[in-house]
Amino acid sequence: MRFVHETLPQRVRFATGESARAVAEEVEHLGARRVMLIASKDEAALAGPIASLLPVVRRHDEVVMHVPVEIARRARRAAADCEADILVSVGGGSTTGLAKAVAMTTGLPIVAVPTTYAGSEATNVWGLTEESVKRTGADPKVLPRSIVYDAGLLTGLPTMMAVASGLNAMAHCIDSMWGPRADPLDQVLAGEGIRRLALGLPRVKQGGPDIGGIEETLYGAYLAAVSFASAGSGLHHRICHVLGGMFDLPHAQTHAVVLPYVLAFNAPNAPEAERRIAEALDASSATAGLAALRATLDAPNSLKACGMPEEGITKAAGRILEAVPANNPTPATEDDIVRLLKAAWEGSEPS
Ligand code: NAD
């Protein structure tokens, strides 16, 4: 057995119904006194009770998905102008992503309060978009120092967004089985993440304030992100990354659509991952288990419906091919990528 596993330094709190107090304690624990609170306009109501217990010097609500560089620049300027000594983000992956963009250049610590299942809060990965190209990188400065999960903040997440976001977390788990740095610890965390997501998501799909179902899904999403941060981006994330940047597609929905096609492509050459995924989904095979879960969830099923133009298939394939990790279980040719994208674009049966 030969591997190197790095555990990222971070506190995590599950505090259903108590996020305001928990965040105030985390900020105090870090010795901070001037909070820049980042939450989009749509997330302002969720952030309100949290802000009320904090020494907030500025509320910043200019949040845009995939963090365009201009938006990052303005947020960095705002942090400098108000002399913030900490960032508190309350929102989905886009909001966490903006806080990370500020932390990257200022070194300010982040306390993250996630309100979707995106998982950005548990990774040291940042993303910035410029001229339709999304760049990502890893930097210890952007890893939030603390995470506070409060299932009560997700009861109003629209069901279709919750399902897509939960499948984005599932994609973190599945890609962690064969990512470029995947190790046995990642596979254990990812397997348990898959199991928890498969238990929680059907409950979330029912809608309504099922706190237990949301907690289960949040816990799965956290495990997913921790394993993904260690294993690195596999084929699935490389594909979604290119598509997201090139066509400005909705992040969670794109992941939800592409995942079964990547699983079908890789599973035949990844028997250990296949066995773990099938076991976690309590199914006869990984692909059958994912298909059954997706059917229960009425999951998004075509890139066409996500807004990708058909001519984008050939445009994206070359760039994806360049990004395929060398250790991907199934070696990929440009024809393979085109076939996979075409099937995902149409929403036809994964094979
Ligand atoms: P998002 O943050 O854009 O949120 C989607 C929508 O849901 C927004 O309109 C938001 O206002 C709304 N929303 C969020 N929480 C809500 C709630 N509880 N109730 C009601 N509405 C709510 O989408 P996302 O999928 O969470 O994040 C996508 C972004 O995160 C992408 O830019 C992606 O690249 C990034 N991301 C980064 C990492 C990483 O490790 N760096 C990991 C995952 C995702």
From TrEMBL:
Signal peptide: none annotated. Residues 163-345 form the Fe-containing alcohol dehydrogenase-like C-terminal domain. It comes from the Bacteria. Pfam families: ADH_Fe_C, Fe-ADH. CDD domains: MAR. Residues 9-150 form the Alcohol dehydrogenase iron-type/glycerol dehydrogenase GldA domain. GO terms for molecular function: alcohol dehydrogenase (NAD+) activity; maleylacetate reductase activity; metal ion binding. InterPro entries: ADH_Fe/GldA (IPR001670), ADH_Fe_C (IPR056798), Alcohol_dehydrogenase_Fe (IPR039697), MAR (IPR034786). This is Iron-containing alcohol dehydrogenase.
